[in-house]
Amino acid sequence: MATNDALSMTDQLAKLSSKTLKEKTGRDWAEWVEWLDNVRSDIRSQKDLIALLADHVTSPWYRQKIALGYREAMGQRQTGELSSGYKLPRAADRDAMKRYWQEKLSLLAEIIKGK
Question: Considering the entire predicted model, what is its pTM?
Answer without folding.
Answer: 0.62
